[in-house]
What does this fold into?
Amino acid sequence: MRLVVIGAQWGDEGKGKIVDYLAENAEVVVRFSGGANAGHTVVTEQATYKLHLVPSGILYPNCKVVLGTGMVVDPEALFRELEELSSQRVSWGGRVFLSDRAHLVLPRYRELDKKLEENRRVPIGTTGRGIGVAYSLKASRDGIRVADL
It folds into this structure.
C-alpha cells in the first residue's frame, strides 16, 4: 500500500509525527519539498532525534529516505544532520538519496536572507537559513541544483 502525507494547511500540523508512525513499516519515505527551516523531533527509548532535512524513516533500518526534487538543501546542514545521526548510532549509509534536481542553499543565501529581513519595513520572521532566497532563485530559474555541481 502506498500512502502520502501532505500538510496543506499552514505548517506544523503534525506531519512529522504521522510520518514517523507510518515509517516503521515503510520501505521508502520521500520528502518532496521544504528545507532545513522545518523540523521535527522524534523521541524513542534510545534517544531524541532532531531532524530538519532527513525524513524520520531513517530511524528504521529497513527504510530508505529520499530528499526529493522540490527540496532546497543546504549541504552543510545536511552533513551536520547526518553526522549527528551517526553519533547517535543511526546507520544511514546506502539509505539516503538526494535528487539531482533538488536546489541548493548556499552560504551566501543565508547572508542575503538575513540582510533582506533587516531591510524590510515589516519583517516576515524568516529563520535566516536562506530557504526563501533558494526558492526565489528556483522560481526565477537561476538556482543551482545538485546536478550542477
In short: The beta strands are 28-34, 40-43, 48-51, 64-73, 96-98, 103-104. Residues 75-87 form the longest helix (13 residues).
